[in-house]
């Protein structure tokens, strides 16, 4: 089957590396995804009540991917610095409060509203309170990804991976960084594909990192599409149709069928990427199964890589896959 028409329109920049919607995106994306407890805690914090967040994080424990996801989402609110500062004042030495403050400062620094040095110091202070927790390291990685230099990305990733080798968000950030390096030789020989496949192979069989090769293709697509509309159209036609791309899409879809993880906090990000790739590759039947599982939980990435209105791109692809477009 020939590929579907590319989901391209006026190009936009990549979303904030923290996972927050980029400025100007419709206010329909929710970084909390389907985590109802997280949404409840976020709403309570907005009203000045800390107990729900305290209980949420205590209950999360050392589920590091979930802890990183929840703290990152709480920290995205522009008021999070105030919330976390008040919490830390009331409970000096509280690792949860210190980590929330660190990530809130990271987000402010990413937005250009805070000095990066203060955010780095806050991450170091939070790490000292909870040495096993990789989440302060996630803050440093987010900051390095947004503000550079690239060498800081690799250092932060290595330190974070020492604490949690399968950290989902960290691997996504690293892959996004690698995808931006210049390619040499054949398009499907780019180093980001090798790195993603190696990480997936080294992870346990049931690890969501199995989908990382699709993330690599989506991130490389972002880089190619950003070179201009003409090249983006050509890239859309070719990028997902090469032999390696076809193999990766098939293997990752098969993995999802066998190992689907309803409980992983960031699984909807993986499913959006896989649905995007299958849609671009003209494989509507497989994409339809993913869209059914995704429901209304669209994520800005990767749909923002193809269109200035990522929600419209998502809905167009979903309607096409489900036979309504």
Automatic annotation (TrEMBL):
It comes from the Bacteria. Residues 1-25 are annotated as: Disordered. Residues 12-25 have a biased composition (Low complexity). This is Tetratricopeptide repeat protein. It comes from Streptomyces nogalater. The lineage of its organism: Bacteria, Bacillati, Actinomycetota, Actinomycetes, Kitasatosporales.
